[in-house]
TrEMBL record:
InterPro entries: Acyl_CoA_acyltransferase, GNAT_dom. This is GNAT family N-acetyltransferase. Transmembrane segments: none annotated. Keywords: Acyltransferase, Transferase. The keyword Membrane does not apply. Residues 1-144 form the N-acetyltransferase domain. The keyword Transferase applies.
Amino acid sequence: MIRRAGIGDAEGIAEVFLAARAGMTYLPRLHGDEETRAWIAGVVLPSSQVWVAELRGRIVGFAALRGQWLDHLYLAPTAQNGGVGSALLDHVKKARPRGLDLRVFQRNTGARRFYERHGFALVAQDDGSGNEENLPDAHYRLRP
């Protein structure tokens, strides 16, 4: 089930975010778990349109839109490769029929293949100076 997130979902969203990023061993750990939870509750949820995917009553993925930008799409490791990510992406594509932009770390080859399979085209690659992690990223765009 995919539904709009509320403030009561902050903890479940943070758990997905932390678990997904823990598997990205190339990422520097810049913030502690509590700081991340506070950021989800105090910044992400109030400033974005956020949807969650639930399986058996548990949040297993989320997507956050801010304007034309898909700022976040994360899945719990146990929910990957089972269609949850595609369902979330299809949902946000319907919410933004004029298209979407996103950034993904260049080293995240699985995510890059996922977005390319779903019609996103590479627009530019950057050196990482524009992101907090200072890791090279790629800008993708989906147009109708």
